[in-house]
Amino acid sequence: MKKTDLTKGNVLRVLTALALPIMGGSLLQFAYNLVDMLWVGRLGTDAVASIGSSSFFIGLGYSINAMVVIGAGIKVAHAVGKKNEYETKAYMNASLVLNGLLGLLYAVLLLFAGKSFISFLQLGNVEVEQNAYLYLAYSAPMLFFAFFNLLFTRLLGSFGNNKEAFKISAIGIIMNIILDPILIYTFKMGVLGAAVATLIANVTMFFLFLYKGRSILFFDKTIGIEYEKVVEIMKLGFPMSFQRILFTFVNIILARMIAIFGSDALAAQKIGLQIESVTYMVIGGLNGAVASFTGQNFGAKKYERIHEGYATAIKIGGAYALATTMIFLIIPGSIVKLFIHEVTTIEIASSYLRIIAFSQIFSALEMITNGLFTGIGIPKVSAKISILFTVLRIPMALLFIQLFEINGIWWSITLSSLLKGVVAYLYYKLKVQKQYRCDAVDEKVFKGYNA
C-alpha cells in the first residue's frame, strides 16, 4: 500500500485527491442512511424513535473513540511528513492497543448499562424503550469493530491514501444496504435486523482493512508499546474527544426535552439529522483532507502551503453549504415525505430543516477550520470553542421552548452552530494566520496553543 507525499504538487489537486475518497465514502454512507431510514420508516414512527434514541449512546462511543483516532492521526501524519519511519510505527502501535482496550470496555458497558441509558431519556413508551435497548445491545459488538475501522481510515489518511479506505467502506456500506431489507422484512427481525446488518458489515470491513493494509496497519513487535507515545496520543486526542462526548451528552439532554413532545418529535429529529447529513458528505471530506494535508505540511514546515490549502477548502465548502441551505429552505417537506407518512412527524421534521438551514455555512466554516487546527496539532482550540457554545444550547433551548415550543430547540442548535463557526474563523484570522506568512517560521509558536 503506497504512501503519498502531500507536501508537493498543486494544492487544489492534492486536496481534491484527498477529499474525493472521503466524500465518496460519505456519499455511500449517506445513501445507506437514506435506504436504512426508508426501510425502518416503513415500520412506523415508533421504530424510527427506537433507533434514534439508541443512536445517542452509539454516538457517545464514537466520541470516546475520537481520542485515539484524532491523536493518532495527528502524530502519524507529522511523523510521515518528517519521514521518520520509527516514530510512525511507534505511534501506530500505541494507537492500535489503546483503541482495542477502549472498544472492548465500551461494548461491555453498553451490554450491562444499556437499559439504564435508555431509561434516562424517559421516552414514555414501553415498546420504543424495549426496542431501543435491544438495538443498543446488538450494536455493542459492532462498535468494537467500528472503532478499528475508523482508526484504520484515519491512519490511511495520514499516509495520504484515502482511496483504499474508500473502497473498503464502499464494500461495507453496500453490504449493509443489501442486508437491511433481508433481515428487517424477509427474516422479520424488525429494528434488530438493521443492527445485525450493521454488525456484519463492520466485521467484514475490519478484516478487509487488515488484509489490504497489511503492509501498514499492523503491530510492529520489534518496537512494542512506548508509554510516552500512548500518553501523547491521549493528550492530543482528549480535547476533541471530550468536546464530542460533551456534545453527545448535550444532545441526550435535548432528546429528553424533545421526548416531552412525543415519539413523533424524536422520529422527526432522527429523520432531520439523516437528511442534514447531506451537508457533511462534502464538508466532512474537506475536514479530513485539510487535517491530513495540514499534518504532513506542518511536519515538513511548509506553512504557506497550509494557508493556501485552507483558503481553497473554505471556498469549496462555502459554495456547497449555500446550496444545501437553499434546498432545506425551499423543499423540506418534499424530502421528509420520502421517509415517513405521519403528518405530525412530517411537519416537525420540515420545521427542523428550515431552521437548521441557517447554520449550514457556519457549520462548514467550523468543520474546515477544525481540520486545520487538528492538522497543526492544536485540537484544544477547537474543543474549547465547541464546548462553550454546545453547552450553551441547553439554557437557550429552555428559554426558546417557552417562546417557540419544540422549534425553540432547533433554534438553539442553529444559533450555537453559527457562533462556533464565527469564533473558529476569527481565531484562525487573528491568532493562527499571522504565523503563516513565510515557511521560515519556527514551529514552536504553534505549540503555545496547546497550553
Automatic annotation (TrEMBL):
Q: Which GO terms describe its molecular function?
A: antiporter activity; xenobiotic transmembrane transporter activity
GO CC terms, sorted: plasma membrane
Q: Which NCBIfam families match?
A: matE
Sorted alphabetically, the keyword list is:
Antiport, Cell membrane, Ion transport, Membrane, Transmembrane, Transmembrane helix, Transport
As for what it does, the entry says: Multidrug efflux pump.
- What GO biological process term is on the record, naming one? monoatomic ion transport
What is the membrane topology here?
Answer: Multi-pass membrane protein
Subcellular location field:
Cell membrane
Q: Which family does it belong to?
A: Belongs to the multi antimicrobial extrusion (MATE) (TC 2.A.66.1) family.
Q: Indicate what this protein is called per its UniProt record.
A: Probable multidrug resistance protein NorM
Annotated membrane-spanning segments are 12-35, 55-78, 90-112, 132-153, 165-185, 191-211, 245-266, 278-298, 319-340, 352-373, 385-403, 409-428
